[in-house]
Specification:
Length: about 230
């Protein structure tokens, strides 16, 4: 594996360059897979990338080139998880890992890590980490219909699901990844706390006689889980 050593991350690493929608992307690391039959390239999508129908990746290395286009409805935040689907998370008190042998407790603050949460305030330059002493929270959704943005319990959380208190969603200080601080609900029983980021929109609809209001819930991330024990 070849890992970028300095900030900002280089736009060329081991002779590899990648453009995303025509913009050179900072490269974090490159690793051979399956005995060198494939390469894994870890990169940062440049902040200024315009996403319309998807992302077009162009990879070049020593005179060879490849192209792939992904089609997305929109940004899709992802929590980092292990092979069993448990979130990569830490106890906020001392940052030791949350594991099945050292689970979270009801009423405890936990830090979970994620990527692709979207634009942030105090945005660093491409290839640079967030400042260690200045928070970079996500940019609030500007929709006038947004009723709630945050964490909810359940793999398919709806507007009736239990909300999870959070005091920070944004870039992890001094890092290029995101973190989500969450308070494990006090009523949580032993087992697994499954959660996801959701957006709940409050939409009105009106008729000739009377009126009504309805809520639309949009899953804003894949679900993740942490072990919990009292």
């Amino acid at each position: 594996m070849i890992v970028a050593q300095d900030h900002p991350f280089p736009r060329t690493l081991a002779g590899v360059t990648v453009t995303v929608n025509g913009i050179d992307a900072p490269i974090l690391a490159i690793a051979d897979i399956a005995g060198g039959a494939y390469q894994q390239i870890n990169l940062q999508i440049p902040w200024e990338t315009k996403i319309t129908s998807g992302l077009a990746f162009n990879v070049s290395q020593k005179g060879t080139a490849a192209h792939v286009t992904t089609y997305l409805d929109g940004p899709w935040p992802v929590f980092f998880v292990d092979s069993s689907g448990y979130a990569i998370a830490q106890h906020a008190g001392d940052y030791r890992p949350v594991t099945q042998s050292d689970p979270a407790r009801p009423g405890e603050w936990i830090v979970a890590y994620a990527t692709n949460l979207g634009p942030v305030q105090n945005q660093p330059a491409d290839g640079q980490p967030a400042l260690p002493d200045v928070l970079a929270p996500i940019v609030p959704d500007s929709s006038p219909y947004l009723d709630y943005y945050g964490l909810a319990v359940g793999p398919s959380a709806g507007y009736m699901s239990t909300k999870i208190q959070s005091n920070y969603i944004g870039m992890s200080p001094g890092s290029i990844i995101n973190q989500v601080n969450l308070l494990v609900p006090s009523p949580q029983l032993n087992g697994e706390l499954v959660f996801q980021i959701v957006k709940i929109y409050n939409g009105g609809f009106f008729f000739t006689v009377g009126c009504g209001r309805g809520f639309t819930t949009v899953a804003a991330s894949m679900a993740a889980k942490i072990p919990v024990a009292r």
